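Hi U.,

Before I forget, here's the chain from the pilot set. I'm dumping it here mostly so it's searchable later in email.
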Amino acid sequence: MENNKRRIASLALFRNLYNEGRSDVMTILCEFVKNVVHTKRLTGFTPTQIKNELKLEYEFHIPEYVVESVIKKFCKKENSLYYPQEDKISNDVNNQKIEQIEQSHEIIVSKLVAYIEEKTQKELSIEEKEILFQAFCKYIIEECDVEYSEYISSFILEAQNNSELSTSIQTIKEGVVLYTGLQYNDAVNEVGSWNEEFTIYVEQEILFHLAGYNGELYQQLYFDFRDLIKEINRKAGKQLIKIRYFDAVKIEIERFFNIAERIVDGKETLDYSNVAMTEIIRNCEYKSDVVAKKVAFFALLEENLIKEEVKNDEFSDYNINKEENIINLMQAFPTRDVEWSLRLLNYTSQTRKGKMTWFEKSKCILLTGNSTTMAVAFHPIIKENGEVPLATTLDYITNKLWFKMNKGFGSNTYPKSFSIVTKAQIVLSTQIIGSVSKEFEKIKKEFANKKKSEEIIIAELAELKTRVRKPEDIHEDEIDEILSTISVVDTERYLREREMERIAAEQQKEENQRLLSEIEKTKLKLTENESTANKIIQQKEEESNHYKACLAEFNNKVIEQLNNQIIEIETRKSKADTKIKKRIRGVCWIPAVAILGYIFIISFFAYKYSWEKMGYVTWLIPMLVILISYILFSIGIKSFNPQDIIDIKYKEYYSKKMYTQYGIDLDKLELLKKQRKELERNNIDL
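Structure:
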């Protein structure tokens, strides 16, 4: 556990040092070597010893010749041993930095543990937590087939919104890119250009990535890889790196399209877990449509300068397709098709003609998306320690070319494969497809053995189709559903639930048939024959229809009566409302007339008796107004508006009087409208 823990911390430190401006990888590596010499208090040592110490201390698998190149920067060689020059050994603090990084990684893992415990509703034991930490380290360092990979992937997806967490994980991933550049590299300092002729043989899935058959994300990963090759060839002024495919791969591609034709023709069933096949037959109505797509596919390969290369199964010193190898590999991978993978790797081996330790000078490599091919390529009987593997993945070779071209991390235009989120999406998509594929094979066997009806099989296939996700379709808001799909237990439970629903439906069908049989028997007892029963049923229907018609007619008559009453009342109400409006308009003039009358009377008496005699009267009236106002306030009346008395009180009084005079009952009018509405609704229901 400690080795992997130290390794991912070292990769993160590698990336951080690079980010601090030390973009010369040899300089960064030199810092790690100096730290080993300082902490181990080494005085005389060999490159082999330092190489082993780097592996032990930091889990760096650095070629010995690269280590020796670094040592020469600060050491002198005497009698096959190197001695450090004291003035060039700095008391570095790399160990402290690594310990700080390890602490931050422990926080990440503790959050991952809590996440998994929440998703699984189960507390992890100490042993399980250790297994999880190892799995997390392997996952980040480019391994995918690890325990808890589905939960690690979903955790990474959901951590996107946590910038601190996602940045820490991404830093390790970018450290892997730099470390990839150091592997199988005899000239670490020679960056910025590619100098050797090199052939990349591609398998079927990689070519399907180019065509977009496996989804947009895989296509973008291929475009990133292709763009780097274009840049290398453009700088060289010739096609240094070529992309080719074996004639055996072409046969497989043509077989794939032939199966697509049979599916379109209705002679085979589509496995929805096969994303490429689903994409090829999409919108194809006839076999000729599939043929047209095949022609377009091979035209696309020509357009991208990807050509066929014919290989023979020749036997030579470089032949690895031996019977003993096949037997050993079949024992190691009993459930996989190792013969196909070994055949392609053998073509690559015979092209190389020897063991290679320098990637750029290895002449060729097989680029594959097949996990079996990768497993065979890295098996000890095929690949010796330190030897360039015969096969690689799209991620690895993109990292390698990116490092070789000295692209660095200064811009935002990184290959899509650099994103840890991209890896999480691919892992989850692959596991979903694997789960669906298993279920498809199970359903095929059940159909062949006639264990289920055709209707049930069709329903289950339709359900499987909805579960398939391309990497770009994997989103954090669907994590629970995705984890449920990946889980074999949950998938089986889902199919059991569908089976239980089918059984329940059949039982209900039998019960319905029994009830129908009893009804038929009852009909036979009540009637002499079926025609009589039909007449009775028809008669009942006619009676029911007649009753509904009569009821509707009655309701219409009642509605008509109600309408007449409502119209008659509303007519009288309209007349009463007209008189009320006129009266209110007339009464509204009373305050104005009273004021004018008061002014007229005062003016008249003042003219007749003089203002001196009328003075006390004009003084008395305002005092009376004040007194009356005081009395009104004292009894709780806060405001006095004659207009409000007319508009509200008087109008209410006069309206009541007029409605009584005209015989208008507002409650009755409202009741009549409610009854009419109810009857109209009843007619609609009929």
